[in-house]
Queue: 2 jobs
Job 1
Amino acid sequence: MDERIEEFVMREELMMLTAAELDVENCRPTNFREPRRVYAWVRYPSKAFRVQALAIAYTRTAVKIRFLEPVIMIQREGWVWLSAVTPERTSAGDEAVGGTS
């Protein structure tokens, strides 16, 4: 348990998109009716992780995801660039992340 506490204290801060990057005044977010399963790249200052996540909202350029932070196993939520997100394959094929399909 001490290792886990040390990891939590010493970990780098997760880097999500800022309000300026989202530009919500010109690009309003739209919530998905149902969250969509995706894989997304999340960044820290010195590394990146590809995580399983739920896409819960989107804009023209970004996706809001909810995911379990890999190192400390805490649920997080934040915005990443659309290009950092890949839909999870479903039995019906790939689903689009942005838009209504």
Note: Helices lie at 2-10, 19-22.
Job 2
Amino acid sequence: MRLRLISLYCSKTEDDNGEDEQRLLVNGVQVWGAESPGLNDRQTADLSAVPPIPFGTRARVELLDHDSPDDDDLLGRFYAGAAMLGLGELEYKFTEDDADYTLTYEVVA
């Protein structure tokens, strides 16, 4: 199975003063990171250039806001798995730490 990332929409950033510096991790490996500046409110990142990510039983997907020199802020986490295969495009909302992001993705064979 593979995880196909489609887009990341930012409704509301975690940072109060401008854009977040987003990092998207799958099974602990960064697969996408926003260039500086990152996404701001009501902006979308096209993730179609990220190659589909192979995984076994399930894939842990995490969105973080890079905060240097402090620890990164976890904006949310979910697991994609075999039960999602063939369901088409799906969405997950990352809403931790007062942020609001929507990831559109698909689990494919």
Note: DSSP finds no helices and nine strands in the chain.
